[in-house]
Amino acid sequence: METSQGSRRVPARQAKRKAKSPARNPRSRRIAGQGEADPFKGGSRADFVYQQMRQAMRDGRFRQGDRVREEDVARLLGVSRTPVREALRQLQSDGLLNVTFGRGLGVVALDRSQVLELYAMRELLEGAAARLAAQHATPAEIAHMEHLLASFRRTRDPEQHAQINRALHVAICDAAHNRYMLQSLNQLSDALALLRGTTFSVSGRARTADLEHRAIVDAIAAGNSDLAETAARAHIRQAQVLRLQMLPL
Hints:
Blueprint: E1 2-5, E2 8-11, H1 12-19, H2 45-58, H3 70-77, H4 81-93, E3 97-100, E4 104-107, H5 112-136, H6 139-154, H7 158-176, H8 179-192, H9 205-222, H10 225-246
């Protein structure tokens, strides 16, 4: 028996295999990395799963409260359940997954107090990153920040504003030349990425954020550590105010 596919005929068994292909399963799009020639890139399978899950959370493919099933992740990423189990344990340790009553493992749903705690730590770390960047940033790193500022100013899309904002904060942290600070900020950013929406959807936020970014980068370029830290902390405090307004009561 054969089935028709366009103008040619395909054996039914082959058509059935194609229909079951993960690339055609919309659920497989929730996790990145499918179809790469070397998806593990020389690392362990557990690290591959861990990084793919983190990226999926950053991109919004997993949201607060979503259930995460070990067998689903293994099937979608084409690995056994052992590395998935290890990766999920690490995500629990990072505070991105927890065990929910009656539902098993799921993405953490942040409450108001947790958001406040995250922003408090982010203010401290972002301020310290800007202070160190003012001391250590190279001309090339400052030029990259200027490029991001120009890109931020050109766009009118809130999601693009959010992406460029993240890139700018990463650039400042990179310019601090402190690997441990980068790791800490990455963990905070992953947790905050679970929150729905962006503060740049608030009317006027892009304009005020542009001014705040300008103050931070100018202070870094001038080598003024005190001013860079003060400007960065003020920027995060303003983002916190808007984020709390967006949270359900």
